[in-house]
Amino acid sequence: MIRQLWMRKVLATCVFAAIFTTSSMVALANSGRIAAELTVTGKNINGETPVVLVNGEPAKSGRSIFPSSTITTPDETSAVISMGKAGQIELAPNSSLNLTFDDKTVNGELNAGRLTVLSSLGTVNIRTIDGNTTTLNAGDEVLASGEKAQTRVRRSKAWVWAIVAVVAVVIVIVAVSQSNNNDVVSPNR
Description:
Radius of gyration: 29 Å
Shape: flat
Strand content: 25-35%
Largest sheet: 7 strands, antiparallel
Distance between the termini: 77 Å
């Protein structure tokens, strides 16, 4: 009896040690590298899924982008790079960008095309082929030549939903007012 008790204690201790050791290895396995996600839109020859080049290799939507990557977009294809808290940027067709980023800042070198900052919590610094570095905010665009493109304001489409709601209310009011059915139906008949 005592021997079985000791065997259970030893076995329980071994299981506890194994679980503790493997769970700490999983927690320590995080590399700490941050990654961005690539979303590719546009057209490709023969109706295939559009691709961009990341470090010279074809890449489709969903690919992870790591700091110090070069992204190149072909004709009729654009790319959105989502970097978590750092923000989102969009590369227009025929653009090339050397990108570095961390949790708070985005830095890049735009060698061709146009870049638009869709959202950003930190700073976005883009160096252009004229050698100047431009600091961009959400909604700002820059061309590879160095000139700041006209700011696009992305307007909310809330007014469309407001119109739909008003039309729905008007339809309900008209339908109720046109109903001349005065028959009262009692549930107790």
